[in-house]
Amino acid sequence: MVQMGRPGLSTAQKADLWNRWKNGQSLSDIGRALGKHAGSIHGVVSSNGGIVPAARHRSRLTLTLIEREEISRGIAAGHSARQIAVMICRSPSTVSREIERHGGRVSYRASEADAMAWKYATRPKQCKLATNLKMQRIVASKLQMDWSPEQVAGWLKLEFSNDPNMHVSHETIYRSLFIQARGVLKKELVGHLRSGRMMRRSKNASTEGQPRGRIVDGISISERPAEIEDRAIPGHWEGDLITGSNNSHIATLVERHSRFTMLVKVQGKDTVSVVSALSKQVRKLPLELRRSLTWDRGMELAQHKKLTVATNVQVYFCDPKSPWQRGTNENTNRLLRQYFPKGTDLSGYSQTDLNKIALKLNQRPRKTLGFETPASKLNSSVALTG
Question: In angstroms, how far is CA 101 from the centroid of its own chain?
Fold first, then answer.
């Protein structure tokens, strides 16, 4: 059978993914380790609310592969179900049902029967909230009042101290919120949690050693030279990330003088992925177009010094919560939503695809340029300065 679309994760890769997530690795780190896009990792993790699924194991009451092989050999030898049952110390009805369930005496194969039994043994037991509608309504009403799951669970034990059927653990409440496949609590209730997260993070997840919340040795936009402000000289850029579904991103670079746009494919939002991708694309520019880059306070450019070393581009950072300080880039990002509507999975676009979209944008006349195109404006400016 021909596989359509991008290949998924194998069982072993999923096990490795969840082990890394449990140990606190980021989506981008896991993606690099497995050779997958961070968006693919996000899809797997978010589908389970960030909660590591319990490892599957066989019940001691089910037939084992060895027992099924004995059944297969018994059938080949012409033994009855009762005779086979004596051989493997099981009841005759268990053996009879096993044979009939998997093709009868003519078609029974031990390995196939074992694989099918493992596949269909995935019916999860409904949680307490799913079966107790009264408690489900109470829990939902308390969450709407911004109570935490732990507060709800504690209050239920106190309020219904003589009724164990009205007791539920806070972990069950969390699981019912984050794992929507359970169909117990509405997704909107997650918004009432103090953390505001849409999925759970590992207790081992840490930002130790990462310059979270501040840019180390970042140069403020207030120190940017006047020549950048008046847009007279080409080669000064503004940059940002636009975000799509499944934790996918594209870096956008806009040249201030001409409004010329470059789109850059990034493998993740982490600083290693972003700086590496930007460096690769910026190095393709002629030296006279590599002067400066103004970015917001996002930690994706925490390693800005590496970008400067690789490209000779000086990086400046906007003040916190001041997107208007890179208004050219903000306006361009709004134009790009024509090609990348909100909710689009951006991981499916190759660098070639992005180059084609950027070309379309750069060949559109701009009112702010006297209806000249960004491409022609940049070309004529480079020719004059060169």
Answer: 40
Say which amino acid occupies 33: A
Structural domain range at position 169: 128-192
**What would the pLDDT profile of 77-98 be if each residue is shown by its tens digit?**
999 999 999 999 999 999 999 9
Nearest-angstrom CA–CA distance, 364 and 374: 7
Q: Which one, of 356, 352, 354, 343, lies nearest residue 248 by Cα? A: 343
Q: Identify the residue whose tokens are 């949690």.
A: 193
Domain count, the chain: 4
**b/e per residue 164-184 (b: at least 16 CB within 10 A):** eebebeeebbbbbbbbbebeb
* Residue 145: partners with Cβ closer than 8 Å, 6 or more residues away: 192
User: What is the enclosing helix (H) or strand (E) of 250?
Assistant: strand 248-255
User: Does residue 175 lie in a domain region?
Assistant: yes
Residue 214: band (very low, low, confident or very high) from pLDDT cuts 50, 70, 90 = low
8 Å CB contact between 30 and 201: no
Q: Are residues 244 and 141 in the same domain?
A: no
> Do 89 and 138 belong together in one domain?
no
- Torsions phi, psi of 119, nearest 5? -65, -40
Q: What is the pTM of this model?
A: 0.55
Written as six digits, the tokens of 118 are 């493992």
The answer to which of 66-75, 196-205, 263-272 has the lowest mean pLDDT is 196-205
Is the domain of 249 the same as that of 299? yes
Q: Which of 156, 174, 192 is the last residue in one of the domains?
A: 192
Q: How far is CA 227 from CA 160, 204, 209, 216, in A?
A: 71, 47, 36, 25
